[in-house]
């Protein structure tokens, strides 16, 4: 009987269509915008970014996002400004709530894996990020 219950529980878990918690482990790190799809369907690609986003969320689902200017050999230039983040799982969605002294807003993670992050904002614009790879120069 216990085996039947375990099998049913296992199949129920597998049959769930969405589990937003799986995206959590990929949020932290350096991200650069690859493409934005506007609500109108218009797409804008980014071949070069002057700034990248650094996201850091801890185990208590709180953290920050900071804009960085990448330099050479994994060095970054940044200000002391950061956007506070609170992560919440609501209605089968992973939501990021941002707060600064000037504004508050919400974004929803549509997808996150080792190499890409896709987020939609309140304007229905979809941001596709790729994992940032720093420039390393071998100088001898």
TrEMBL record:
Domain Lipocalin-like residue range list: 27-119
InterPro entries recorded: Lipocalin-like
Identification of the protein by name: Lipocalin-like domain-containing protein
Record organism: Winogradskyella immobilis
Domain of life: Bacteria
């Amino acid at each position: 009987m216990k085996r039947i219950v375990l099998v049913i529980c296992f199949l129920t878990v597998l049959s769930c269509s969405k589990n937003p918690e799986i995206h959590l482990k990929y949020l932290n790190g350096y991200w650069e915008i690859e493409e934005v799809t506007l609500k109108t369907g218009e797409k804008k690609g980014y071949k070069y970014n002057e700034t990248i986003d650094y996201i850091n969320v801890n185990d208590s689902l709180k953290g920050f996002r900071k804009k960085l200017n990448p330099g050479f050999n994994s060095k970054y230039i940044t200000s002391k400004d950061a956007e506070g983040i609170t992560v919440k799982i609501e209605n089968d969605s992973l939501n990021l709530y941002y707060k600064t002294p000037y504004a508050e807003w919400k974004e929803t993670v549509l997808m996150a894996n080792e190499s890409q992050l896709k987020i939609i904002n309140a304007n229905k614009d979809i941001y596709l990020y790729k994992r940032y790879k720093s420039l390393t120069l071998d100088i001898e």
